[in-house]
Design a protein that fits this description.
Layout lengths: L3 E4 L2 E4 L15 E3 L5 E3 L8 E5 L6 H14 L6 E6 L3 H10 L6 E5 L5 H6 L2 E2 L4 E2 L2 E5 L5 E6 L9 H12 L1
Parallel strand pairs: 5-6, 6-7
Antiparallel strand pairs: 1-2, 3-4, 5-10, 8-9, 10-11
Length: about 170
Amino acid sequence: MSRQCTLKGNPQKLAGPELKVGDAAPDATLRKDLVSDYKLSEHAGKPRIYSVVPSLDTPVCAIQTKKFNEQAADLTNVNFFTISFDLPVAQKRFCGAENIGDRMMALSDAKLGEFAEKYGTLIPDHRISCRAVFVVGPDDKIAYVEYVPEIAEEPNYDAVIEAAKKVAG
């Protein structure tokens, strides 16, 4: 049976594996700007949250990114990332306009799509990611995973933050 989510009730096929708690967090190469690659393994051994959104230029994605950015101020020993297929210049514009500071790093999957393929968030028909959140512990294993069934809905912020606090000690 193929994996899917919905977008305003319309089924969307997902490609890639369905990661589970306890799985090793895959490494992936993304872009932090138009020319610089960023490997997720640069933060290996540290607690982190990967907040995955379809596009920062949509209301629910903006809300999700801003909420996690607010949480980042309180969880200083957790690294926060927002990941989307938006180009790095669009991510930079959004983060500047919304006062998203240095506590949350925006990473673009637009060039390779490697994160989406390895984390099972790819919607191939639209070349975007579904909405998802991954908490990775200092052991580089997934401590929490949520593939949000309906893209237009927000993730369970409380569960994500609780899992992050547990792995951060």
